[in-house]
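Lecture 7 notes: from sequence to structure.

We start with a single chain of 408 residues. Read the sequence below before looking at the structure.
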Amino acid sequence: MVLRRNRPFMIFWLSQTLSVAGSSITTIAVPLLVLQATGSVVQMGLLTGLVTVGSVLTGLFAGSVVDRFDRRTLMIGADVARAVLYGAVPVVWAFGPRPWLLFVLMPVAAVFDMLFQVSYVTAVPNLVDRDQVTEANGRLHTTFAVFAVLGPAAAAGLAAWVGPANALGVDAVSFLASALCLTAIRFRAVARAPEDGGPVRRVFAGARFLWAQPVLRSLTIVLTGVLFVTLGAVDLLIFRLKGELGQPDVVVGSVLSGAGAGGILGATLVGVLRRRLGFGPCWIGGTGVAALAVVSYGLVSDVYALGAAAAVYSFGLTIAGTVSMSLRQQITPDHLLGRVTSAFWTLHYALGPIGAVVLTAVAAGHGVRVAAVVGGGLVLLFALSALFTPVRLRHPEREYAPERASVP
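Now the structure, written as tokens:
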């Protein structure tokens, strides 16, 4: 079936577009709110780290939950919960700044973010045919990137007009709209296989599958290093613009809108590049390009140059991220997909909180130049190391197809 004639997928596409539109505003509003209330880039890094800790801890059980319960219901519940949490910020902020509130609500919101994201990954293969997974992911990311361009500019405008706290209210509304759309679709039934062992064994079935698959095992190890650095890259760019160059909020939003333009290009081309170049060249090349962009954050001072670097960074990560997720969806049996996704994210985000704090602390103590050059150089080394692993294969989905996979 042609994707545009697949009604469930089209509604799902709409729901995710609305959700990401709001989240792109939050990406700007939350750091601006922390910086406005505390004036500290270290506080920004600490919040990013705490949010990631919430995601990592949730990842330990999210996959098991997603594989055992109705995935659509979980997604709707996660949307409603996030709407309540984000909506509480402007209400409380109306009585005065409460920075501690962000350190309480944002990690809790990260719990529902992880539940939703794991469910989201499992939903795509249950809405389209397996050979359409990469195309579907590319279309989803294309639309997401379009709103990523509009979102930062809207966030900057809202922050200047009504304040960053009130801008979070827009995200709350977008989550409610996403939940409403999800009520109108149904996912295909999941083919569940009988499993032996107790709850602990079932939870770690995803990790065992990752370890048994050479390409996923290698990809997880390399990505753990990559995420150690890149999780704090947005904070690094914002601190460069605000703290070192003294640019206003509108300029910050405009630069990150440029990053969204790079994401649009990457999502548009990922299907073609994947078919012509294969998985390995796309992932290694995309990650390497992103690494060079991070290095340039510390080497250039011109706002337009930083905007171009942000676009290149987004382009590279979009290519690498899309082919990575699509491969995982293609070679994982459906009844294990939630746990494999959960284990994958948990493992490669494990060092993320430490990395975000370290990167922003280095930027605060030694400047963005040092943090960016060292961080970007590390990412480049991790990308090149993948050349010595099965990640370099052009078509690993053929060798590690689901029908060949051994189920733990």
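Residues 3-184+202-399 form a domain with the Growth Hormone; Chain: A; fold (CATH 1.20.1250.20). Keep this in mind for problem set 3.
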